[in-house]
Design goal:
Blueprint: E1 5-8, E2 24-28, E3 73-81, H1 91-105, E4 112-119, E5 122-133, E6 175-176, E7 183-184, H2 189-202, H3 213-220, H4 234-239, H5 248-252, H6 259-268, H7 283-297, H8 301-310, E8 319-320, H9 341-345, E9 351-353, H10 355-363, H11 377-384, E10 397-399, E11 404-407, E12 410-417, E13 420-426, E14 431-438, H12 448-459, E15 461-464
Antiparallel strand pairs: 1-15, 2-3, 3-5, 4-5, 4-14, 5-6, 7-9, 8-9, 10-11, 11-12, 12-13, 13-14
Helix pairs in contact: 1-12, 2-7, 2-8, 3-6, 6-7
Length: 465
């Protein structure tokens, strides 16, 4: 067992308080920039080893968000600390950590934030900030000096070429987030799907290098026009090397109404490259894997995941959600009208969960941690090993089988959809953390890593190897 220990590395100010008296962040609530119907929500387009800024792992990106007067203040709603045997971090350290996270995210315009940290698989701290349901917004004439990029969304979207939505207005009190509320986790869903696919591989119900293109085409009624489609394998789908295009418009511009419909469309078209040759991040790969799980198991995808992964980990409440979801235990991620991307993503990005849930899932892959382990060590190593192609040659950073390798022995995944940023990381020192956000900051989801690290530094906490 690793001896990862959290210690206080600096003297903390008494004003930080404790987890029983969480800090109040009095800065004004600043909503994110407007989302318009013609700007599609986007998932990650490349793995962390690519120069694409949406996937880089860096510090805060410094996006300027103009602050404005607002009748609501940001409140830290809940902060809980469970002290693990190897943890000596005093409560006031976590209070300082919470204040830093809130100031870096809520004060930059996010509606709600959830965070969880585990050491050697044991949750040692969780916290929630902001609103389950954001404050109401109405359109008003903006000051001439207000940049459109810093303006909040409105209840009725206007033509951005003629009208600019602006500020907040008084209304019913916003609904505060509560412990246990679930966020969209977007593409972190791919880790869950990959684990269950690999469980079926280990059980002998699927072959990792088994061609499944024809099988999937028959399942959704697709007419294959490209002779290379039938030879696509499970491994290639997991690694985003199946040869499919990204199909961003298919998933995010309401061109289809479901994952099976997206699968039928994608399998009926030609590939952008031969299977196994190039890496192209595409939600279609994991939509197909979800359908494959369902066919192999003979039961709905969500039920199979629950039985094979979530129930053994004692995770309750995780589920697939729709774009406009009315579950009172789910954080609202405001969506523009006439969207249906959650319904289409399915196994590629439609799960909602708490930060503790995703930390628990990722930590379960580390066989040095106690508890249920869904996969053998050899298969976990395959998940974590970047798949190399002609354009992706770094063996330490890139995309494996449902897992991103961030370098320095850190693995995990990011997730991005409309008003959603999510990240989960398992580090080599036994620390696993997740930050889930409702809002559009940071625009680069990978910057959550730098924000987390900054909060740890601000709190004076060090994790010792």
């Amino acid at each position: 067992m690793r001896a990862a220990t959290a210690i206080v590395a600096a003297t903390l100010m008494a004003a930080c308080g404790s987890t029983h008296n969480p800090p109040q962040v009095a800065s004004p609530f600043v909503p994110p920039s407007t989302t318009t119907p013609d700007r599609p929500s986007t998932e990650e387009a490349a793995g962390p080893a690519e120069p694409d800024p949406d996937d880089s792992v860096a510090g805060p990106d410094g996006t300027d968000v103009t602050e404005r007067s607002d009748p609501y203040t940001t409140e830290v709603v809940e902060s809980t600390t469970t002290v693990a045997p190897s943890t000596t971090t005093p409560p006031q350290s976590w209070a300082s950590f919470d204040a830093s996270i809130a100031s870096q995210l809520i004060d930059r315009g996010d509606y709600a934030v959830g965070v969880a940290i585990a050491i050697d698989g044991e949750i040692v701290h969780t916290a929630e900030f902001g609103y389950r349901v954001p404050p109401p917004f109405v359109p008003e004439p903006p000051p001439s000096s207000s940049p459109a990029s810093s303006l909040p969304p409105t209840t009725a979207l206007a033509d951005p070429s003629t009208t600019t939505p602006v500020t907040t207005a008084p209304g019913p009190p916003p609904e505060l987030i509560e412990p246990g509320d679930r966020f969209r986790i977007a593409s972190i869903s791919k880790v869950i799907t990959a684990i269950v696919v690999l469980q079926l591989v280990e059980a002998g119900q699927l072959g990792l290098d088994e061609p499944v293109g024809q099988r999937l085409a028959d399942l959704v009624g697709a007419t294959i026009t490209d002779p290379q489609v039938p030879i696509i394998t499970v491994r290639q789908l997991l690694a985003h090397t199946g040869g499919f295009s990204s199909y961003q418009s298919t998933f995010f511009r309401a061109q289809v109404d479901s994952c099976p419909a997206a699968a039928q469309y994608g399998l009926s078209r030609g590939l952008s490259s031969p299977p196994g040759v190039d890496y192209t991040y595409s939600n279609l790969n994991y939509c197909l894997l979800g359908l494959l799980i369902q066919q192999v198991a003979g039961r709905p995808y969500e039920a199979v995941v629950t039985d094979r992964l979530l129930a053994p980990l004692r995770i309750q409440g995780m589920r697939l959600a729709t774009t406009y979801d009315a579950d009172p235990a789910q954080v609202v991620h405001p969506s523009a009208p006439f969207r249906n991307y959650m319904e289409v993503l399915g196994a590629a990005g439609s799960w909602v969960a708490t930060p503790s849930d995703v930390v628990t899932v990722l930590a379960s892959l580390d066989r040095q941690n106690p508890g249920f382990h869904p996969l053998s060590q050899g298969v976990v190593d395959l998940m974590r090993t970047p798949v190399l192609t002609a354009s992706r040659t770094d063996p330490t950073r890139g995309y494996g089988l449902g897992m991103m390798a961030f370098g320095d022995g850190a693995f995990g995944h990011t997730g991005t959809v409309e008003n959603t940023h999510a990240m989960v990381v398992d580090r080599a020192d036994g620390v696993t953390w997740s930050v889930l956000v409702s809002g559009e900051y940071p625009g680069n989801t990978g910057n959550l890593a730098g924000i987390f690290d900054q909060a740890i530094t601000d709190a004076g906490v060090a994790f010792l190897r």
